[in-house]
Amino acid sequence: MQKVSDAMRCTIAFVSKPVLQLVPMLDFSRQYAPLRQEILDAITQVCDSQTFILGPRVAAFEMAAAAACSTSFAVGCGSGTDALWLALAAAGIGDSTRGSRAIGEGDTVVTTPFTFFATASSILHAGARVVFADIDPRTFNLSPESVDAVLRTGAEGDVKAILPVHLYGQCADFDGFRALQSGRPELLLVEDAAQAFGASWNGVPAGSLGAAAAFSFYPTKNLAAFGEAGLVTTSDAALAERARSLRSHGMTRRYYHDEVGWNSRLDAIQAAVLEVKLRYLPEGNQQRRERAARYDQLFQGAGLVASASGATVKEGLVLPWTDPRGSHVFHQYVIRAPRRDALREYLAAHKVGSEIYYPVPLHLQAALKDLGYKAGDFPHAEAAAAEVLALPIYPELRDDEQQTVVETIRQFYA
Ligand SMILES: Cc1ncc(COP(=O)(O)O)c(C=O)c1O
User: Number of structural domains, the chain?
Assistant: First the structure.
């Protein structure tokens, strides 16, 4: 039999139907069913208009998204990865030319090692240097104190921006990051809000907390397209205009190129789907919060939870901690679990979905070895990578399914 390469396996995982699960990690069909007609009507309108790239449908979604994020502008693009690159490049970070620098050169951007790879790769593609700082172990988000330590050493070159990620749907500590800006007027805050559409910090929506923000609408996201799509939000008119130009090969006038950009235009079918789904997002996010609260109750009831706040995984499951200053949208419900990998295998054997976001922190990824980090550099990120387990959560998840998840976990530890 032909050997299946890792790359093939990865492709298979993304395109094939999952094995029939008792509790699937995600079930897109449950969201689609009630919205089906509305979405198909919106797609039909795009087909009838025969305007497939950018155009009025994309502009309409951009306006709706900007309003939802309380920003003046939103710029639709091809993916969350592109949105990150566009946000950084349009903010003047790096040399704006993809991949033209060797790893570790140029302006510096400080970010978290506990995130999806694109957070760091987009910094490199912008032509800037990536510097990591450790996370807050309670929220898994970049810690302002760790970033402060990096800034104080002064050894990391010209730090132009901090790029916190609102991981799992919870905003990073923007009080802390804003405090770091005092006395450093040039220091920009750029949000990786890929997992957090609808989240907020002190009542301010994700997307309007920094100079610019990047969203992903990858199909697994809480606001999900029917393919690849992303968005930059900002209230800075010049930044928005530059992002618009960069997404279309640096063109502001047809076939006159002011700078070297990229093709990252949002297509109208994705915009049409997203515009429909955006209308239902507040309700969906609220249902996610309710599902998360229900898990908390069930785990407490099953006696599986580490006893006191601040408890470690050695004492039992550690449930997600919600910072009271923010409103979490529970893009993921992530616990810390003793014997995490064995638990995951047990869940899989009992047809209960789970996932590890993320098993290897970025400073230990082969592709980033030239950054020069080693194991032990970011202990909180490394502990999180070894302990976290994401459980099924989506608005349509049923009560009985949550009970099955918790009961299966109880059996594992019994
Ligand atoms: C935190 C984070 N940043 C960036 C991205 C990149 O988004 P996309 O997959 O749409 O390129 C993702 C999504 O996978 C993400 O979760």
Answer: 2
